Each structure stands twice: as structure tokens, then as C-alpha cells.
Amino acid sequence: MRRSSPLQNRVDPYGALFRTPARGTLMGNRGGVIHNDAREIVRRYASRRWIACVLEFKGRRRVVMSPRRYTELFFLDEAVALAAGHRPCAECRRERYNAFRRAWNPEHPPGADEMDEVLHPARVDRQGRKVTWQSPLPMLPNGAFIEFDGAPWLVWGDTLALWTSEGYTGRIARPPDGMATVLTPQPIAECLRAGYAPMVHPSFPIDAVTLHV
After folding, report:
1. Which residues form the domain of 28?
2. Could you report the per-residue pLDDT of 140-152, keeping only the tens digit for each?
3. Number of structural domains found in the chain
4. d(Cα 207, Cα 81) in Å, to the nearest integer?
């Protein structure tokens, strides 16, 4: 029997959607339906409600990319989801959502609409293109993604880890100086700086990494 090709529903740190047989550890969506009845992606997003969810919740079962149902997207891990511009879901990841809100503003944690209004122009421009920004590399928090040598790398401690669809493969020492092109939207990077620690794929054991000082 001929196997069908993977759906275009995996998300990379740039926020682009691609096909791969590799499985993700988080699911999410972009505010509604972005595929057609042939299960093809036809637009980048439906609204500014970009969220990251657990793979299973309360025994719910769905057929991925069902007609006229929201489009399920998948991420290697939470660090990738954040880099792509997704925030924690308020329903299935309530504890993480509240932690994200407190990192955003500990005195007055914002609601979903308030955060999404700020996040959307920080993730894509009016033409739907990825928004990046510049930062001194030593100043970036754990969990941020940068573009280095034309590829996406995770920043954690004194290490940069190369992202692939199946996990993190290459590792190099974080350079002690220089500027970096940052893929993680700036408001999310500020949450990381404030202490929000994203879940990272087990191919990169963060406990073994020396903390950056």
C-alpha cells in the first residue's frame, strides 16, 4: 500500500509550515481554518490567536485538518512554538498560560486579547513575513532562537543548539559577543528574560548545559 505524504502542518522556528514524517511534542493553531477541503494550506493564519497546546486533552479525538475545522499545527517543542510566535493555550495549558502572563507583567497579568494584540505585529508584518530583530548575543535569554549561519539555533546557557525537524543535532559554544538576528518575537523574549522557561525537546538535555553568566 502506498503511504500518503505528510501533511504540511509542522512549524519551524521561522513560523513556516512544512512537511515531515517526524512527530512534534506540542500541537497548536492560528486562530481557525487555514487549509482547504483537500487538506492543503491556503493561508498563513486565520486570526491573531496563535496558541500552543498539548497533544491530548480530556480524551478529545480529532481528524487532523478536517474540513472547516481549525487547522492543527505541530511543533518540535515549546521553544520552537514561541519562536514561531505562538503563546500557551489558556484552556489545555492553563498553568503555563498563567505563568506566561505573570512573566509578561507580574503586577497586572494581561488577558489573551491584550497579549495577542501586541504579539501579532511582532511575529509577522502586514505582508505575512516573519519579523526578526537584533540583539547582542550575550543578552539573549534561555529559550530564544536566533539565525546563525543561515539556520535556526536555540540559545541556552553557554550553548547554541541547531534545530532540525527531528531534534537538536549540532551544538556550539555561544559566542561571547556580537549581534544576533532573533527569531523569537521580542515580547516573548522579554517573557523568557523574566523567567518563563519553555519546554525543550529531550534531544537537547538542558540540565547538562552550563548556565550563561
Report:
1. 10-208
2. 999 999 999 999 9
3. 1
4. 21
